[in-house]
Design a protein that fits this description.
- With about 500 residues, the protein is an alpha+beta fold.
- Among the domains are: about 30 residues, no CATH class; about 90 residues, no CATH class; about 110 residues, Immunoglobulin-like.
- Helix content is about 40%, strand content about 20%.
- The strands form five sheets. Strands 8, 9, 10, 12 and 14 form a five-stranded antiparallel sheet that branches. A four-stranded antiparallel sheet has the order 13-11-15-16, with no helix packed on it. Strands 3-4-5 form a three-stranded antiparallel sheet, with no helix packed on it.
- A hairpin with a 4-residue loop joins strand 1 and strand 2.
- The protein is elongated.
- The N and C termini lie far apart (about 80 Å).
């Protein structure tokens, strides 16, 4: 800790007194610091290739999935992946999710969270380094910036140069391409909510819904701002995951790690000089130069580190040049570093309590969802009993209750269904608007409401509130749905 007063600076052990700064208590201190521009150098190596592959694959999935067609029969959308707000459906290839089945969406979110917990417990922030949308689009924007302005040193030199024709055209071209990519991002987003070919045509001629233009503009603005300007600030200040991940990681988790047991003491190295008494790190700072968040991995695991492993590529390249073994920076664990310092053999413990728990929970939720999908009903019924009035006594002395029945047909065919009761002696059931008192017809992929009356001539042996089930059956497929309800007999409670 650095203690200060108006006249002296006292530095704690290990801190260079010459670098300690005296601060007067009366001097106002800002809680904010101006962002320092980071000029990430292009890395070369296996992890950089892996990031390129992830970028192209994930962007390809995002931009092209809305154009995939899937035949669902007549009068049904033919888009493979579609969020249809107008008809309250979510289509994913052969899966069709209705509003009543929103628990599947909940299950997917739980699976995503558990999967992220498991991957983080095993390999640290690998999601952040390779698959996070912020990382993907930032990587793409940096690649565009590098194309027009050059690599690290060239970009630094260009930013410091005076504004001339060379600087103007390069900066302008970069921003134009950024805006085009951001617009394509927003444009692809709206394709997931409408038929892609139709909305694309209508959007170009100005006939698309106003919400399409609003959301495209919003996604264009956020992509351009977050990937073009904010970049590492999103990961450091806006994203909660860096703070949550600390609970997911222990000393046995694989992280991008500087092996200080091998690298220290560091320092410059001359050709043909001995390596005795020193570490392999020559303090070239290439690991810092390639880092997209501008940190020094040699300072240990840090909040800003996204686990992209580009520093591994940079360090391996230097190790090759100075004829030292690769892996000074590598995926490793804190436990292994301690083992090596004690002369013990290193080992990687991927199977441990937390990873087993995450894996079991992931498998359990996934199995539950899969079982539900394989056994999901294509027929559903919801019943609401009339409460005003609770019952009606008819002229013949019978008691009648009214019900509002909502029938859901999840198939692409019209279905004729039988509606019956599973209780009561000789009930009189009438469906308003239907010639057959026990048969209803439901159009394909639709929900339809029916008004139903149930009358009982003799209620002497019944309770005040008598429970029973409405039974809806498709006689062609033998699919049956039972929905519980109550019949109010009109008796007075004792």
């Amino acid at each position: 800790m650095i203690q200060t007063n108006d006249n002296q600076v006292q530095a704690a052990p290990g801190i260079d007194r010459s670098k300690a700064v005296a601060v007067s208590p009366s001097t106002p201190q800002s809680l904010y610091a101006k962002r320092k521009q980071i000029y990430a150098k292009l890395a070369h190596g296996n992890f950089r290739k892996l990031k390129w592959a992830a970028l192209f694959i994930l962007l390809g999935i995002y931009y092209f999935i809305p154009w995939i067609r899937w035949d669902r029969g007549p009068d049904a959308p033919s888009q493979a992946v579609l969020v249809d707000f107008e008809n309250a459906r979510f289509y994913f290839f052969f899966i069709e999710i209705w509003p009543q089945e929103v628990y599947y969406i909940t299950g997917l979110l739980i699976l995503a969270a558990l999967g992220l917990f498991l991957v983080t417990a095993l390999f640290g922030r690998v999601w952040c380094g390779y698959a996070c949308p912020q990382t993907i689009w930032t990587d793409l924007f940096i690649a565009i910036e590098r194309f027009f302005e050059g690599d690290r040193n060239a970009r630094i030199k260009l930013d410091r140069a005076k504004w001339d024709f060379n600087k103007i055209w390069r900066k302008t071209a970069k921003h134009i391409v950024w805006i085009l990519v951001a617009a394509a991002t927003g444009g692809a987003w709206i394709l997931y909510f409408h038929d892609a070919p139709t909305i694309f045509r209508d959007f170009l001629i100005g006939h698309a819904p106003i919400t399409s233009y609003v959301f495209m503009g919003l996604l264009t603005f956020t992509t351009y701002t977050l990937a073009g300007y904010m970049r590492e600030q999103v990961c450091t200040y806006m994203c909660p995951w860096p703070r949550i991940q600390a609970a997911m990681i222990d000393d046995k988790a694989l992280n991008v790690t500087y092996r200080y047991d091998r690298g220290e003491p560091r320092g410059a190295h001359k050709k043909n000089a001995t390596w005795e008494g020193r570490g392999d790190c020559i303090d070239c700072r290439q690991c810092v130069a390639v880092c997209p968040t501008g940190i020094d991995i040699r300072d240990g695991l840090q909040l800003e580190c996204i686990g992209c492993a580009l520093c591994i590529d940079a360090c391996n390249e230097i190790m090759d040049k100075i004829d030292r073994p690769r892996g000074l920076i590598a995926y490793d664990t804190d436990a292994n570093i301690e083992r090596r310092q004690k002369g013990a053999k290193e080992k990687f413990e991927l199977i441990r309590a937390r990873t087993v728990i995450y894996a079991i929970l992931f498998a359990a939720v996934g199995s539950f969802m899969l079982f539900g999908l394989l056994n999901r009903s294509t027929l559903d019924m919801n019943v609401q009993r009339d409460r005003i009035p609770n019952f009606v006594e008819l002229s013949d002395g019978s008691i009648r209750n009214g019900y509002q029945i909502k029938v859901l047909n999840k198939t692409p065919q019209v279905r004729t269904l039988d509606l019956t009761l599973d209780k009561f002696q000789n009930p009189v059931l009438r469906i308003v608007g239907q010639d057959n008192p026990q048969t209803i017809s439901v159009p394909a992929n639709q929900t339809i409401d029916y008004k139903v009356y149930v009358a009982l001539e003799d209620v002497s042996g019944l309770q005040v509130r008598e429970g029973f089930n409405f039974v809806l059956e498709d006689t062609q497929t033998n699919e049956k749905v039972l929905t519980p309800s109550l019949f109010i007999t009109g008796k007075t409670e004792k």
